[in-house]
What we know:
Blueprint: E1 21-23, H1 28-33, H2 36-41, E2 43-45, H3 49-69, H4 89-108, H5 117-145, H6 157-164, H7 181-203, H8 205-222, H9 227-230, H10 238-249, H11 257-260, H12 264-289, H13 291-310, H14 315-321, H15 324-331, H16 333-352, H17 360-385, H18 387-391, H19 395-413
Antiparallel strand pairs: 1-2
Helix pairs in contact: 3-4, 3-15, 3-16, 3-17, 4-7, 4-10, 4-13, 5-16, 7-8, 7-10, 8-10, 10-13, 12-13, 16-17
Amino acid sequence: MGASPGDDQDGSGGPGADAxxxxxGTTEAGDAAKPAAARAGGRGRLPGLDGIRGVAALFVLVHHxxxxxxxxxxxxxxxxxLSWLIYGHFAVVVFIxxxxxxxxxxxxxxxxxxxxxxxxARRRAWRILPPYWAALVFSLVVAWTLVPQPGEGVPTAxxxxxxxxxxxxxxxxxxxxxxxxxxxxxxxLYLVFPLLLLVLRRAGAFVMLAAVTAVVVAVxxxxxxxxxxxxxxxxxxxxxALFAAGVVAAGVLAAGERVRRFPWHRVAALxxxxxxxxxxxxxxxxxxxxxxxVDLALGPAVALLLAGVxxxxxxxxxxxxxxxxxxxxxxxxxxxxxxxxxxVVAIHxxxxxxxxxxxxxxxxxxxxxAGPVSLVAARSFAAVFELPFQRHRGWPALREAMRGRLxxxxxxxxxxxxxx
Length: 420
């Protein structure tokens, strides 16, 4: 599964990066949910978005613990009370819609203008690639020295090249990390983001979203009768429509007061109910086989929910998502997604499986051990490879910050002068 990078105000954020910045105090409910500094300052973080990202990343981690404890996916071989954990794929739906939403906030407030394709591409690469490449090295080391990913051979030189260039959804190679697949998809969506804004600016949000969705639906319908078209399914084209829905939903923040006060969260709930009812009724095997269409049905509900949370409603949910622990989890959710899979697999295969019975005991022990280890490892990893790239926008600023930290460390180690 994949986590979507957090995105900053100018549309340059990436998986797990800073939360979006936007005007504070757009509604009474939003005011109640926002920190006082944001309400008073005019601009501040949109409360709740980092929290959504963090919860989704944690759900993917728990999902992978469940898959290892109950083999047979997509068949549900576990107890009914754990059945909901089999649908980790839906966290990716959330990530993709949230990515489009976050990237589009600043353009939506600027007449849907990007502010330069080259600048956008440079800042996307700066935000996404350093932690991704570091996690790739980590995953390769684990796969080569401890245990490869389930169902995969030992990574090869081709794996290094293909995964290093983010081409793994196009070219096949043994995977060093089963969670990497959606990062390639997300990178490809960044390539079309400027085009989506151009169409939206010239033809309107409805035309842009309808055009993208029409292409995606056509691919889905033709894939069963055309082999060349079926090859496009490797790129999970339905995510393009989800990404576009997120872009359109961001326009709520630039709309008038009446639009921002609309109960988007209630409409989101209504849109979600039939999709969830279908999933429950048909079960996981059918749902996994039809993820293409289920994703398309679920995407609008997620986009509507994001519009609601971004405008401060429901206030209770926004407050929960903006609590310090949940917000902190969201701040390194990209890294958590990137590094958790090798950790979970290694702990389950080398520590849990040889000593703990399969099923519920294996799941609970794997989660109890791999969960905290993954969180601590991800936070430490992020401190080196992710958070510095959030805070500093280029090599000069990053080098200056590193020099400052080194100087302070040397000063702290220097013995204090003796008093006369």
